[in-house]
Amino acid sequence: MVKKVVTGNYAASYGAKASRAEVVAAYPITPQTQVVEKIASFVANNEMDAEYIKVESEHSAMAACVGASAAGCRAYTATSAQGLALMHEMLHWAANARLPVVMANVNRAMGPPWTVWTDQNDSLSQRDTGWLQFYCENSQEVFDTTIQAYKICEKISLPGMVVLDAFILSHTSEPVEIYEQDRIDKFLPKYAPRYKLDPSETHAFGGLTTPEWYYELRYKIQSAMDEGLKEIESVGKEFGKMFGRKYGLIEKYRCDDIDTLLVMSGSTASTGKEVIDRLRDNGERIGLARMRVFRPFPKQEMRKLAEDVNKIIVVDRNISFGNEGIFFSEIKSALYNENIDVPIYGFVAGLGGRDITMKDIEGMIKKAEGKPGDIIWWGLK
Amino acid sequence: MKLTIPEEELMGHGNLSCQGCWGSLAMRYALKALGKDTIAVIPACCWSVIDGPFPYSCLKIPVFHTAFETAASAASGVSAAMKIKGKKTTVLAWAGDGGTFDIGIQALSGASERGDNIIYICYDNEAYMNTGIQRSSATPYGAWTTTTPGKKFKSAPKKNMVEIMIAHKIPYTATACIAYPEDFIKKVKKAKGFQGTKYIQVLAPCPTGWRYDPAKTIEVSKAAVDSGIYPLYEVENGVYKINKKVKNKTVKEYIKMQGRFSHLTDEIIDEMQKNVDREWELLLRKEEFYGHTKK
User: Fold this and answer.
1) What is the mean pLDDT of residues B240-244?
2) Which of A185, A237, B9, B195 has the fewest Cβ atoms within 10 angstroms?
3) A207 to B57: CB separation less than 8 angstroms, yes or no
4) What number of C-beta contacts closer than 8 Å exist between A and B?
5) pLDDT, tens digit (0-9, with 9 covering 90-100), for B205-232
């Protein structure tokens, strides 16, 4: 094992290399650019045995990944914001064709106005495409999750998105453990799909399908997502045994014996953890749930957490216009039919990369009193 | 005279084409030329339907149905997969004129510039036929379609996609016409021999959209070539070669066979004739210039 000081972006590149991605098709976009630059240099230096297609757009990037994956290859791409939005049609295609493409998405706010800083609206807008979504807290997790994502996605035949915050993660260097390749190979064997484009066994993929069968095909995607919940946990556990870092659906930080639950995702959760430490030291009964997985949504886990508290505070670095913060909505909907009657406060903060500081988080916790509204804007000028 | 068309059939009888569909015949001939070790990538076009509904396919090769604008890009992905796996399988991107001239031109230009190893065949029926005859940029000047109705017939000329592809300096570009199957097959086979992106544009008349009796297709197709409107030529590493150097029919003879041009006045037809003559002359000069300098 070697420890390298790398950015979140390079952690994604190393993750693709460690996963032995065979076809990479990508288009540069700030702040993802270094992911593909690094992969280009890996391929050029024969450090990575892959075909790198330097496509002319993100739409073509995902189309090429879809084609390569259908032909039985492990396919990889990376993008951000506008690029992800341009891919949208092909995100559906990858999922509906049941292809385990894995990509990194660097969370960047959508324009206009032009912006390159972080928020989650780009990836969360792809909520219903059938992609698994993992939100990473640090560079190590980006590397680890890329490898796990292939294993999970290839098992359930759905694509997966590894998400990291623009700049805060993408451009910040920190130590990342890069495990020995033979151990990674043992954890993640070669991709061997049951069906692929192969002239010795001819099939037509994605042909016109009438209402007689379409409905069942969609049911199967939902079933695969359900299976995904279990798979994410078991793969995360196996990863822990092998490499010393265990992963799951929701990371529970100091959640024992609490009456208030703070819910965050991405790198902001690190700031949240600092706040939790400070408040716990002052005797407050508060813990943090870091949402690592957004799709499939970990409803059961969230219900279990919610049952034992009398207040939930959700910090969303995103917004569904006309409604509210997206994690906030999803959490509420997971609880409603279970009669878990706990007040939930939904804060929208840090859009377009505005800092969410410890002071902000402490302020939100203080403000979460009385009848919770639908949406609470934090720090609005 | 004995025809040289291969006997192998890689397209089955059960397919969903319209009566007298020449786009389906084009596929049949193309696969005869390419053989069994081929993967087809088909974007939205008539062939999304013709291939047959799930779980059927009329093709005896693997088919990947893909989104409208992604024939070339998805094929690039399949081609990269074949390369990394060390396979020689031919990757065929098979798209209509809408998927090629219009919505798919970016992906095709990208693949061509990169030199991705695919054979791209555009079966050109000169409009969006799958959605029911709407104009595309392959629709010729003067034609009626459902989006260029009545006096608002198409007022822009057909996009010269073949020259756009030649400008990419790909190793092989050719036109073909379904009335000349041996020429088409020869070109598809030739394309298979090149590394990189190869482009063949085959005129595949659509009796439904062009408004003529399906029994007349061969006659109509031949007239397209013989009038010089759809010349048969190929460009191999920059060298032009006209495959059928006769021009013994008039534009008028060609368009009078088709209902889609029935509204045109003699004045307009004369103007069209002048344009065709000029284009033909230009092609002859290109052959003369590029046909020798590169040798």
Assistant:
1) 96
2) B195
3) yes
4) 165
5) 999 999 999 999 999 999 999 999 999 9
Q: Which of B58, B61, B84 to mutate to test the interface with A (most CBs of A within 10 A)?
A: B84
User: Is B8's Cβ below 8 Å from some Cβ in A?
Assistant: no
Same domain, A234 and A332: no
Out of A185, A217, A243, a domain closes at A243
ipTM: 0.97
Residue among B39, B53, B77 whose CB faces A23 most closely: B77
- CA–CA separation, B129 and B97 (whole Å): 9
The per-residue pLDDT for B295 is: 46
Summarised one tens digit per residue, pLDDT across range A265-281 is 999 999 999 999 999 99
Burial of B35 (0-12, 13-18, 19+ CB in 10 A): middle
Decide: residue B202, CB within 10 A, 0-12 exposed, 13-18 middle, 19+ buried: buried
* Domain span including residue A280: 250-377
pLDDT of B206 reads 95
Picking from A22, A55, A93, the nearest residue to B84 by CB comes out as A22
What was the pLDDT predicted at A1?
A: 83
Residues A34 and A157 in one domain: yes
Tell me the two tokens of residue A295.
């799709």
Nearest CA in chain B to A27: B110
List of domains in chain B:
22-293 (3.40.50.970)
Give the 3-state secondary structure of residue B256: coil
pLDDT value at residue B20: 86
* CB burial of residue A342 (10 Å; 0-12, 13-18, 19+): middle
Contact flag B74-A206 (C-beta cutoff 8 Å): no
Do A81 and A141 lie in a common domain?
yes
Q: Which residues of A touch B38 (CB under 8 A)?
A: 199
Instruction: Verify that A168 and A117 share a domain, yes or no.
Output: yes
Mutation to test the B interface, candidates A197, A205, A215, A218, most B Cβ within 10 Å: A197
* Tokens coding A352: 């377009």
Judged against a pLDDT cut of 90, whether residue B4 lies above it is answered with: no
Q: What pLDDT sits at residue B292? A: 63
Instruction: Check: CB of residue B231 under 8 Å from CB of residue B129.
Output: no
- Based on the domain organization, do A206 and A236 belong to the same domain? yes
Q: Which of residues 169-188 of B touch A (CB under 8 A)?
A: none
Task: Tell me which residue of A318, A365, A370, A368 sits closest to A345, measured CA to CA.
Answer: A368
**Looking at the structure, do residues A30 and A137 belong to the same domain, yes or no?**
yes
Instruction: Please report, as a single letter, which amino acid is at residue B37.
Output: D
Residues in chain A within 8 Å Cβ distance of B54? 204, 207-210, 213
Q: Which of A243, A272, A298 is at the close of a domain?
A: A243
**CATH of residue A259:** 3.40.50.920
Q: Which of A60, A101, A103, A201 to mutate to test the interface with B (most CBs of B within 10 A)?
A: A60
The total domain count for chain A is: 2
Question: In chain B, which residues have their Cβ closer than 8 Å to the Cβ of A70?
Answer: 64, 77-78
pLDDT tens for A48-80 read 999 999 999 999 999 999 999 999 999 999 999
Alpha-carbon distances, residue B209 vs B21, B42, B112 (angstroms):
10, 21, 30
